[in-house]
Design goal:
globular; Dihydrodipicolinate Reductase, domain 2; alpha/beta
Length: 444
């Protein structure tokens, strides 16, 4: 397949800077992990960009290179790290406090992690009620805050000799709100920045600053952030890739694996009850009902889109879906999720599935941060801009073009991601039908 619409990406020359608003458990685990891999202390397990292959052509051709050898991704050796946080801890101190990684590994990486200290953050406690910290910018207006962030980015880029930058939001979940008139156009948004409009959240200010400078932005939280008409317009103007929302890690990852299987077998669903306990800073933030509402909306949307009750009313029209998250400090970053799934089989006979996922939240999120950083940079070098739907694989609430529904099925998302890479490099797409099918070939 020719690659006429999207030119092949130019080579990744020079250093790639990865800036993270939020330098707590997720960011420190991500950076420590990359440093450990660079030093040969561990493997990048969970990272598609580093460990997965991609089939090219027919199975008889036996072409299955690693993705990192197929597309020109920035090598791990060329990554530089920085970011902002409301706390003053450098990444070594943050990693120790988060207690995600074994102390022996954190100590082995002390020199590398200690070099990465946070810049002063843009913060508004009205949006994250359960946190406060001293490392916060004092700006007269939200436009002043955005301009301060842009200066931070440019200064940091020069200081670290970085050629390109991507931004991945690793900060907290903000309180729930919907877009309104101030988010409708770039002009309205910039007016709102100057007038300190209360509906412009800190994450939107980071997104605005990034997009103004042409820096790709990936949103790892369920916040609106870049998912508004104004910032979509800005991304189009500056030709910048964007993607989000909310890293797909624990319980929702399981839902996007199990639900497609139920639908494929035409098994009915009567109810899905999900509850979590979590003790890290994210759990503390989500203990506030406003922030939990944002997360709840993200989690609840998944099943409806996968199961399509409008198409299959006999199976899925009236299923009950409940999600709970409880803050439980003793558990720390080791989140535990319980799912009780009431399903229906032949003639409506009831059955149950029980899932108890004892996961590590930041361990699951860290490789997502890496992949999004590398793929966002790749998209930018390929001339791709706006919403990157092919990266929906990584998100609970994938951004999507107007008039379309978000794709939540993990396996469809995975196929779309790989086919986008094939298209980008001028390779034939893998499909379920066509010449390959009739010659006995099938999809990966």
């Amino acid at each position: 397949m020719s690659n006429t619409k999207n030119p092949r990406p130019v080579e990744a020359k020079g250093k790639l800077g990865v800036l993270t608003p939020g330098m707590g458990a997720v960011a420190s685990t991500f950076v420590a992990g990359v440093e450990a891999v660079r030093r040969g202390l561990a493997k990048p397990i969970g990272s598609i960009t580093q460990m997965q292959t991609i089939r090219l052509g027919k199975r008889t051709e036996h072409r299955a290179p690693l993705i990192r050898d197929f597309v020109p991704l920035a090598p791990l050796a060329d990554l530089e790290f920085g970011g902002w946080d409301i706390f003053e801890d450098n990444l070594y101190e943050a990693a120790k406090k988060a207690a995600v990684l074994e102390p022996v590994l954190v100590e082995a990486l002390k020199a590398e992690l200690s070099r990465v200290a946070p810049m002063k953050a843009v913060f508004d406690q009205a949006y994250v009620r359960n946190l406060s910290g001293p490392n916060v910018k004092k700006c007269a207006t939200k436009m002043d805050a955005a301009e301060s962030l842009m200066r931070d980015i440019e200064t940091w880029k020069r200081a670290h000799g970085v050629d390109r930058i991507v931004m991945v939001w690793c900060g907290s979940t903000e309180v729930f709100h919907k877009p309104n008139a101030v988010h409708a156009t770039v002009a309205a948004f910039e007016k709102g920045l100057k007038e300190n409009h209360p509906d412009i959240a800190p994450s939107m200010i980071y997104a605005y600053a990034a997009l103004k400078l042409g820096v790709p932005f990936a949103n790892g939280a369920p916040n609106l952030s870049v998912d508004t008409p104004a910032l979509l317009e800005l991304a189009a103007t500056t030709k910048t890739p964007i993607c989000g929302k909310d890293f797909k890690t624990g319980q929702t990852l399981m839902k996007t694996i199990i639900a497609p299987g139920l639908k494929a077998r035409m098994l009915g669903l009567n109810g899905w009850f999900s509850t979590n306990i979590l003790g890290n800073r994210d759990g503390e933030v989500l203990d506030d009902p406003g922030s939990f509402k944002t997360k709840e909306e993200s989690k609840l949307s998944v099943l409806d889109q996968i199961l399509q009750p409008d198409l299959y009313p006999d199976l899925y029209k009236n299923f009950f879906h409940k999600v709970r998250i409880d803050y439980y400090p003793p558990r720390g970053d080791n989140k535990e999720g319980w799912d009780n799934i009431d399903i229906a089989g032949w003639l409506g006979y009831p059955m149950q599935i029980k899932v108890n996922f004892l996961c590590r939240d930041s361990i699951l999120a860290a490789p997502i941060v890496l992949d999004l950083a590398l793929f966002s940079d790749l998209a930018k070098r390929a001339g791709m801009h706006g919403i990157q739907e092919w990266l929906s694989f990584y998100f609970k609430s994938p951004m999507h073009a107007e008039g379309l529904y978000p794709e939540h099925d993990l396996f469809i998302q995975h196929m779309k991601l790989k086919n986008t890479l094939r298209h980008m490099m001028g390779e034939t797409l893998i499909t379920h039908l066509g010449l390959d099918y009739y010659e006995g070939e099938d999809a990966e």
